[in-house]
């Protein structure tokens, strides 16, 4: 059975993690590679690097992060933030990213989704949608990191994203983001039902029950979570265990019974990300 | 002696990940589209994500189509991954009807409606046969998938695993020295690396 995914998100600025987990045993907590390795070891299903580098000159730093991560982390990872053209995407994919997430550039020019998916394949084009509830109870698409309302309806936009070849939707509720009150389940459910591509719920996770709700009520294929894991309130392992006990299909590895069977025959050999 | 494996570069997919995973496992990798360089290796890997048609066009353009067929005839250990699995078959319905490498008989078809497409994420691989590729990997382990089409081989004897997504589909095959998997071992964490290690041992 296809497992529901848990995807930690790391904010990276000029090649350093500015919002990440407080893993106690990390030599360098600001290193994206170290953080990614630790998350992979904990059982993260994928990772997202959100590049929040402001200055244009420093934007190449994310490429170096991707190159290094690719050498040591063997789970899929997505890079988002500031992607403007096909060359940006090509550079990230060539460096070793599995997917890219585009937002503002897709809103400004929907054809960009089409060009990107035709060039690189739908599977690596994630379209991020920042949604905010309006006074007349619709959801409106915001661009420029949530600063600019666009007047575009979220449900219609989600449908268009799919039609243009987007492979996945990363759906963030701006109303819930940072509140720890739980995902916007109504929004997530409406978008999930509207499109036939996977939807990743984002914004608002405060406890493990919230993750559960995103899958059962929000019908999400995956959840993105940042602070719930970063600040050590819950570990990824705990989250997976909790979800499994409540009947959600999740990937748990290694289980105690499996771990000894999977050791390579020649003792002492180590895999890079544990 | 250090083994040398060839990863076929035909301009599609995340080739760097495959190469890096192999290097971590201690082999030397030749990532290339140069037939001469690829002729000197112990095993070949055809990776790839993306469109079938573009894949075939690129293989043809680079003169790799005949090389691949000849290598497979010679019996060099071969591993196809994702699109590199699908390309081995007769034809695909992706982008009309497009002819594949025709090394194996069968068709590549799209998942039916009513389920989310692409099939994206971690799913269980159910073994149908004991196979060296799966050595020391537990049955029903999770591997990472991302694809919208799957293979329907004519010869069911080559099927070594299936996976359930709105019904059972073939997730791995083996015939003589040819192996192919629909999932991405290079993105499937420890067990994926274990599978690649098993392939390296075969080479």
Topology:
The complex is a heterodimer of chains A (274) and B (203).
Chain A: E1 5-13, E2 16-19, H1 32-42, E3 47-51, H2 61-72, E4 77-80, H3 86-95, E5 99-102, H4 104-108, H5 111-120, E6 125-133, E7 139-143, E8 148-153, H6 154-163, E9 168-173, H7 185-194, E10 199-202, H8 208-216, E11 222-225, H9 227-230, H10 236-245, H11 256-261
Parallel strand pairs in A: 1-3, 1-11, 3-4, 4-5, 5-6, 6-9, 9-10, 10-11
Antiparallel strand pairs in A: 1-2, 6-7, 7-8
Helix pairs in contact in A: 1-2
Chain B: E1 4-8, H1 15-24, E2 28-32, H2 35-38, E3 43-46, H3 52-61, H4 64-74, E4 78-81, H5 83-86, E5 91-92, E6 98-99, E7 106-110, E8 119-127, E9 141-147, E10 149-153, E11 159-164, E12 168-175, E13 178-181, H6 189-202
Parallel strand pairs in B: 1-2, 1-3, 3-4, 4-13, 5-7
Antiparallel strand pairs in B: 5-6, 7-10, 8-9, 8-11, 11-12, 12-13
Molecular structure report:
The complex is a heterodimer of chains A (274) and B (203). The relative contact order of chain A is 0.14. In chain A, helix 1 (32-42) packs parallel to helix 2 (61-72). Helices cover 35% and strands 22% of the residues of chain A. Chain A is globular. The model of chain A is unreliable at 255-274 (pLDDT under 50). Chain A has eleven helices and eleven strands. An eight-stranded parallel barrel of chain A has the order 1-3-4-5-6-9-10-11, surrounded by six helices. Chain B is of the alpha/beta class. Chain B has a single domain (4-202), classed as 3-Layer(aba) Sandwich (Rossmann fold), CATH 3.40.50. Chain B has helices at residues 15-24, 35-38, 52-61, 64-74, 83-86, 189-202, and strands spanning 4-8, 28-32, 43-46, 78-81, 91-92, 98-99, 106-110, 119-127, 141-147, 149-153, 159-164, 168-175, 178-181. In chain B, the strands form two sheets. A nine-stranded mixed sheet of chain B has the order 2-1-3-4-13-12-11-8-9. In chain B, strands 6-5-7-10 form a four-stranded mixed sheet, with helices on one face. In chain B, strand 5 (91-92) and strand 6 (98-99) form a beta hairpin. The two termini of chain B are 13 Å apart. The interface between A and B is large, with 45 and 42 residues.
